[in-house]
Amino acid sequence: MDNRLLNVNGRTKEQLTLALALAFKSEYNKDVKAVGWRVTNEHGLILFEHAPENREGYNSFIAPHTPEQCATMIWDWVNSPDAKNIELSDWCGNIDHDGHNRLGWQVYLENWGKVAGEQFVICAAKPAYCWYGK
User: Fold this and answer.
1) What three-state secondary structure class fits 123?
2) How high is the pLDDT of residue 134?
3) Is 48 helix (H, G, I), strand (E, B) or coil?
4) Other CB atoms within 10 Å distance of the CB of residue 77
5) Is the per-residue pLDDT at 92 higher than 80?
6) For 1-44, how does the pLDDT look when each residue is reduced to its tens digit (9 = 90+)?
7) CB count, 10 Å around CB of 112?
8) Do 52 and 120 touch, CB atoms closer than 8 A?
9) pTM value?
10) DSSP letter assigned to residue 33
11) E strand map for 6-114
12) How far, in Å, CA of 117 to CA of 12, rounded?
């Protein structure tokens, strides 16, 4: 589907697993699996259904990964020092407001169901702050 939309944020690993389960469903209700990934500072961790050709920074999984397996990997990555360099989305920054923020995650797609103009993308994930007002 060309106009697929996805933008979910949350704080728990269980919520992350559910967001990925939705992202891993094709328009034909077929469960896809991730064959690889790459990280960019602007887009975070991008998951691929098919390997892109000659893509800088692309890493193949030893075996295709399910949403549950990717959730564990993303959860560990979001909470690692490596993820601190990722650019946060407008609605997911650590803003100053009348309340508090907790680090979580964002799972998303961009225009045309792509991320960074890449084809064969399942979704991308990045750190995101959840805002809690008074």
Assistant:
1) strand
2) 65
3) strand
4) 19
5) yes
6) 667 889 999 999 999 999 999 999 977 667 899 999 999 999 99
7) 12
8) yes
9) 0.92
10) -
11) 7-10, 34-40, 44-48, 59-65, 99-108
12) 28
